Amino acid sequence: MPLIETTESFPERPVLIILAGTPFSFKTSTAMTASKPLLIDSERGGERAHGRVPTFLINTYAELESEIQGGLLERFDTVITDTVKSFLDDHIWEHALTLAYTKNKQKLFGETGDIFKKFVSKVKAQKKDLVFVSHEKSKDEDDARIYDLDITGGSKQLLLRMADQVGFAYKQQLKTPTGVITQTVITFNPKKEWPFCKNVAGLADIVIPDRYSNEWAGFMDREIIQPTKQAISSMSEDQRKALEIVAQYQDTIDSIAGGDVELKAISEEVKKIEPEGLKKQIKAYLSQHIKSIGWKWNANDKVFEPVFTEPSATEAENAPTDSESNTNGLFADSAK
Amino acid sequence: MERPLYTCRVTALETFRLFLHGQTERNEGFNTEANLIDTVKGIHRAGDKADFGTLGHAIIENRKDNRKWMADIGRWGYDLNGYKITTDQAMPILDYIQQYPRMVREITLSKLYKARYFDLIVTGHADGLNGIVCHDNKFKFSPYEVSDYIDSMQWKLYLDMLKMKHFQYDMFRVHGFEVKANSLKARIDPCESFLLHAYEGMERDIQVLIEEFSEWAIYRKLESFLEINEDKYNTIMASEMPIYQP
Questions:
Q1: Would an 8 Å CB–CB cutoff place A256 in contact with chain B?
Q2: Closest-CA residue to A38 (of A4, A6, A2, A82)
Q3: Which run of H or of E encompasses B125?
Q4: C-beta separation of A41 from A80 below 8 A
Q5: Complex ipTM, two decimals?
Q6: CB A15 within 8 A of CB A132
Q7: Which of B110, B158, B199 to probe the A interface (max A CBs under 10 A)?
Q8: What is the C-alpha separation between B133 and B159, in angstroms, rounded?
Q9: Nearest 5°: phi and psi at A98?
């Protein structure tokens, strides 16, 4: 792994996207418009999809693993798993059982999760993007239909944790002067109806283009995968810049040992910091520092001044020696 | 007539959300209205697990090494009100601290929201801010559901109050702890994190919850518990006031 200096941005990394949706919302077809896709088909969804891409019809997970070992992924950019539930429940679960037979379901869930994590790592290590296609399941609550990913318990939690972007595709009817048209929309913005969505890229809801239009080819790559990569990359760059600013201020603040003029000057400077989140953290750091060096703001006299409390005779007698001072509990020096 | 100005903590709003919208078979019996009213009233019932979590939080908050020699067991470690763990047990927490050397801990937050019946200053404490990411630490004693946290209002409110876009839950799974006496046998897993991001419509979701909360608080006649007392005033001021005023 090449060394990345603190002043450098992290290189672009593969992304993991979950695409869920109602029946016939073109989930698989949309995923197949990613760059150089390989479809790992565990549910024969590829046959119903629009268009064709190289497809690995999975019989056993061991077979897939051995093919990946043998270089199956080399000529592809994107690995699509359709559907993730059947991939996990039918194939990885069976594989886990083959590796270590047990009647203990909890243990088997754990083993399945571990194998799945390894699968994701192997694909990512080869710098391939991952798209997991998922069915939805829904329930009616009050006056709304609430959707969820149709992925088994623990695996769903694992995927939600790992996913960069989670989208939901659904049909929407629009009234136009010429009649009602139905369009399919992908949203990444969580809502009461689809709370599981995740949108690192801040993508607006997207209408899936007509399968025969010019916009169809490369749709998934152009409109979803690339913007997600750019967003992650830009987040990493924004984080690098923000931490650089935080470090500079923290070092400056740490060098201040007290003094009304010095503390007023740095307080004035902190007031001007933007954005708000950065200002809050540097302001908090400064407040904690002022306390830790034994100073405070005197609002009446409008000066920073040292905190001076005369120790009582008993306190002075009982004051700990240097060697004891850090043994009175966790909060002995918690001001900063 | 002047609009009333009240205050409540993020925790109260999240408890309210769980009561109103978060009822599932899994958590049946937990999100009761009685618990919610206690939260609004500020009645805090910490159990052994919550106190163990407080010990974990305290280790994270301290940037300096505050290990102490625990003579009774002849080991170095951490002790908070009799909840003890050794340095070895705390290693995942110490690794986590190392990972974020510039993180600023314990930031007091507040923001004024307007509801139909009153204005509400919502207050909270962010566990850590690290550059563009707000962090929250959780100590969990049973398997947790990521989706529970995705649904939570806590991160949405914090991001809104901070005007930030990214929030990270840092989860420490604790095994083998039920009661205080188990402290020294507890095992803490390495931190597992997941990121969540501000989204279009997040402010609307927050506003809807605040409206629902205000209606409920009026209906249950809880206004007196939302009034701003000295403690609450100090919390708000700690967040809002500049460090000094020329």
A1: no
A2: A82
A3: strand B119-130
A4: no
A5: 0.89
A6: no
A7: B199
A8: 9
A9: -65, -40
State pLDDT tens for residues A232-282. 998 989 999 999 999 999 999 999 999 999 999 999 999 999 999 999 999
A133 class by beta-carbon count within 10 Å (0-12 exposed, 13-18 middle, 19+ buried): buried
Three-class SS state of B92:
helix
For chain A, where are the alpha helices, taking DSSP H only?
27-31, 61-69, 84-86, 93-99, 105-125, 153-162, 219-220, 226-254, 260-271, 276-292, 313-318
User: What residues are paired with A186 via a beta bridge?
Assistant: A169, A206
Decide if B185 contacts B174 (C-beta within 8 A): no
> Among B64, B147, B166, whose Cβ lies nearest the Cβ of A196?
B147
Tell the residue number behind the tokens 């993508």, with chain if given.
Answer: A203
Determine, for residues A204 and B164 on separate chains, whether the beta-carbon distance falls below 8 Å.
no
Q: What is the pLDDT of residues A246-255, one digit of tens each?
A: 999 999 999 9
Q: How close B70 gets to chain A, by Cα (Å)?
A: 9
Within 8 A of A286 by CB-CB distance, chain B residues are: 243
User: Which of B24, B99, B123, B132 should we substitute to test contact with A (largest number of A Cβ atoms within 10 Å)?
Assistant: B132
**Residue among A195, A246, A275 whose CB faces B150 most closely:** A195
Residue of chain B whose Cα is closest to the Cα of A146:
B21
Distance, in Å, from the CA atom of B145 to the CA atom of B27, rounded to the nearest integer, reads: 12
Measured between CB atoms, does A140 come within 8 Å of chain B? Answer: no
DSSP A329: -
Backbone phi, psi, residue A269, to 5°: -65, -40
Run of H or E including B137: strand B133-140
Residues of chain A neighbouring B69 (CB-CB closer than 8 A): 327
Task: State whether A297 and B243 contact (CB < 8 Å).
Answer: yes
User: Taking the model in full, what pTM does it have?
Assistant: 0.85
Which has the closest alpha carbon to A82: A14, A126, A143, A34?
A34
Place of tokens 């972007």: A165
- The continuous run of DSSP H or E covering B225 comes out as helix B223-226
Strand B119-130 and strand B5-9: the pairing is parallel
Asked if pLDDT for residue A109 goes beyond 90, the answer is no
- CB-closest option in A243, A280, A333 to B131: A243
Closest chain B residue to A304 measured between Cα atoms?
A: B244
**Residue among A195, A220, A177 nearest A138 (CA):** A195
A233: contact with B, CB 8 A cutoff: no
Residue of A nearest to B24 (CA): A141
Cα angle for residues A237, A242, A244 (degrees, 5° grid): 95
Q: How far apart are CA A5 and CA A24, in angstroms?
A: 47
Distance from CA of B226 to the nearest CA of A (A): 25
- Nearest chain A residue to B126 by CA distance is A281
Q: Cβ of B147 and A283 within 8 Å?
A: no
Query: How far, CA to CA in Å, does B90 sit from each of A164, A331, A333, B86, B174?
Result: 30, 16, 19, 6, 11
pLDDT for position A322: 36
Size of interface A-B (CB pairs under 8 A): 146
In terms of DSSP bridges, do strands A144-149 and A295-298 run parallel, antiparallel, or are they unpaired? unpaired
